[in-house]
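A protein record in our archive is deliberately plain, so that people and models can read it alike. The record that follows is passed on verbatim for readers who wish to inspect the format.
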Amino acid sequence: MSEINKALAELQANLPRITKDLTAKVETRTGSSYKYQYADLAQISRELLPLLSKNGLSFSSRPTRRDGQFVLAYELRHVSGEQIDGEWPLPDRGTPQEIGSAVTYARRYCLCAVTGLAPDDEDHDAIVAEKAERRRRREPSPEKAAAPKAKPMSADQQKRMQTLFEQLGMGPKDREERLAYAKKVVKRELRSATEMSHDEAELVLAAAFAELSESGGAA
C-alpha cells in the first residue's frame, strides 16, 4: 500500500463532523424567499486541514488554464512525495462575483471529494457557480426561459426587406447572401431571416436603405 493511501485511510477513520452553522436566505424573482443551512469553505478548511497535516498530507489548488480551458488544478500531497491531483472545469465568462463563487465552490468540492469528506447541501457559491456555468454554455436560466418572446418580424417588414435586397443586387436565389447580410447586422446566428425579431428586422432595413442611399439607388 502506498504512503498516501495509508495516510488517507488514517484520515478517513477520523474525519470531522461538519455542522452547517450558516444560514442563507435567497430572494426569488416572484417576491418569495427560502432559507437553507450550509458549511462554507472556511469552516471546512478550519476543521479538516489540521487533520491533513497530522497525517502528513496537504491540499493546494489554483485557477489556471489547460488546453485553453479555465480550470481549478488541485493536489493532495503526502510528505513521501506521492500525490493525487486533478482538475475541475471553471466558467471562463461571467461577473467577478460569479467567477469567484465558482472558484470557491470548486475548491470546497474538490477538497471534500479528494479526502472523502461528505459534501454539504448546495450553498450560495454553488447557486452562483451554476448561473455562471449556464452563461458559459449559453443556456437560459429558468427565469429567462419563462420570459415572453420578442415580437416577430412582420409580413410588411419581410416584403420591404425583399425589395431592398433586390435593389442591392441580391435576388430571391441569393438566399445565403441575404442571410449573411442579416446576420452581420444583428450580430447573431440565423438559420432563416424569419427568425429575426421586429426590432432586428428594422435594423436590417435601416442598414440596407443606408447602403442603397450611399450608392444612389434609393428613391
